């Protein structure tokens, strides 16, 4: 079974996707982390963020992997755990540029589809329901105000121990700019699938969002059993 959860930056996708995957005993796939890892590799290899060939070569050399360790998903480039490194403001500032490169997207989408074809998955990102898994059993599109998402990102930095000199207003501006870049890129833009269910998480708790999505999944499971 395939569950696709899309939406803009800091709308709560990864948080709820992880919980839902645990509750259903499905595999969680954080596609955003894969693009962040690609961006991290570009920086580590001192490549331009527009150097598609160079970044692809770095990906082939290092190998980006998602591994579950002690109930947590870790992101690796080669043998190095970069789970924390890819969440810094510097990577956030450039990931839209790298993820807009056609070759990078093709590479990541291929890897993501391979994973989804082997197991029950909960996959989150920006183009899962429209591009990566267009036939997903359940498609969810999460939205929230830019201000509330900035507050969540600030809290996330604190919880991860990531230091930043950015103010809340600057983070909100960065989020708004990324929304524009992601929704206006030529290849696989951030877009709600026609058959996706939109949920505004601005005033909702994590539990409320999780329960709303689980309710939609249960409906889909019942319909599937009827068809079978």
Automatic annotation (TrEMBL):
Catalysed reactions, semicolon-separated: CMP + ATP = CDP + ADP; dCMP + ATP = dCDP + ADP
Protein origin, superkingdom: Bacteria
Domain Cytidylate kinase: 3-218
Key word Zinc present: no
Keyword vocabulary terms for this entry: ATP-binding, Cytoplasm, Kinase, Nucleotide-binding, Transferase
Class in the EC hierarchy, top level: transferase
EC id: 2.7.4.25
Keyword RNA-binding: no
Subcellular location: Cytoplasm
Binding site residues for ATP: 7-15
Membrane-spanning ranges: none
One Gene Ontology molecular-function label: kinase activity
Family: Belongs to the cytidylate kinase family. Type 1 subfamily.
Stated name of the protein: Cytidylate kinase
Organism: Lactobacillus melliventris
Taxon lineage: Bacteria, Bacillati, Bacillota, Bacilli, Lactobacillales
Gene: cmk
